[in-house]
Amino acid sequence: MSNGGWRGLVGLIKPTRGSGSLEELIRMLPEGIGIIPLFNNIKHGKIEEFRAALSAYEDKIAELAEDQVDLIHAAGTPPFMLLGYKGEQELIDKWENKFGIPIFTSGTNQIAALRALKINKFVGAGYDFEDTSIVARYFTDAGFNVLAIERIPVPWEEVGKLSSGEVYALIKKAFLKYPGAEGIYFQGGKLRILDIIEALEQDLQVPVIHPGVAQCWEIQKRLHVRQPKSGYGRLLAEMP
Q1: What is the dihedral of CA 7, 218, 190, 38, to 10 degrees?
Q2: Which of 121, 127, 171, 186 shows its CA 20 to 30 Å from the CA of 153?
Q3: Element (H, E) at 122
Q4: What are phi and psi of 57, to 5 degrees?
Q5: At what angle do helices 21-28 and 211-222 cross, to 10 degrees?
Q6: Rounded (5°) CA angle 70-100-21
């Protein structure tokens, strides 16, 4: 284990390069948690790209297992949500049995975060790709009441160029259509919106699930680390 990973070493497989989400995660994580990042090369957000990426994920999990990491996070929602809630769990079980290392995906991470904040009914914002129904279906099969998943109105490649103010306005408008909503969900790490999480929680009085914040929370939970951090919403501030 490197000196930088004295609290635990995490292997992280990102679906794309250069989104900025890795840098955000490293800034949020407590000192002493090390990250070994590997990258797939999904470029256009197409279904065939997502399906083809699964074998690449397994190759990288094998590589990280050789590095003797303590935990592996296979990040990216569409590649795994395409399998469905049960199919994804079967694949995780297979990989954990094969490599002997705990593994979680973005979907299972977001489910855990929703449950930790006691959110059942939620409104979300997700990527605009060929079949966005897989996202709502995934969470419905996991037992949640998905009131709406608002499509982010730009191509998959352009999501990171939206300002956080534009995303705030989009999700606020969608949320206010559903008075019974208990929380807000954001699908992917390409969004640069850390600066609006607390504003949304304060303005709308519900917790927000941000993918990077949820990853930081679960990494700590899995490594038995607990270092609350303010500025990123209830999940990191309260560490439920």
Answers
A1: 50
A2: 121
A3: strand 121-126
A4: -60, -45
A5: 50
A6: 45
